[in-house]
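Progress note, project year one: complex with iron/sulfur cluster.
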Amino acid sequence: MAELRAKFWENLPLADLTQAEWEALCDGCGLCCLVKLEDEYTHKIYFTNLVCSLLDIESCNCSDYGNRRAEMPDCRPITLQTLEEIEWLPPSCAYRLRRQGRPLFAWHPLVSGDKDTVHKANISTRGWTVSEKGVPIDDYEDYLISDPF
Ligand code: SF4
Ligand code: SF4
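Model obtained:
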């Protein structure tokens, strides 16, 4: 793995991060991979407890991250620009927090030094979500949940 600067998540603005640091900032929660339904008239976003078929339900990681856009054209990469546009990222998202100049939570793997703390703190999609794989699109409304954040 490319070298990461010490405490880069504390004292460096997002715009100054290297690609490796940008990727490492993700907490691995999987919450951005929840399937969402959009009201075609109001454009309001509704969450389901389905997750993208590429998400590994147990690890909460994308199973084909490098190639994901080819398989899932709807996947929105988190970049400096899309951070300005995407309204459905959870308040706990590390990119959102750092964009607001706020510190990461103690459960963030970069802070704790343990990848599992995001799951132990019940922040991630582990344990309460279902893969959309095999679920007919007409049934997605059956999985609607109240705002999970
Ligand atoms: S919500 Fe943010 S921190 Fe969590 S997996 Fe998605 S991009 Fe990473
Ligand atoms: S393609 Fe990968 S990163 Fe994109 S929503 Fe699906 S699981 Fe998440």
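The helical segments are 8-11, 19-25, 68-71, 80-85, 94-99, 109-112, 117-120.
The chain has one domain: 9-143.
No further modelling is planned for this target in the current period.
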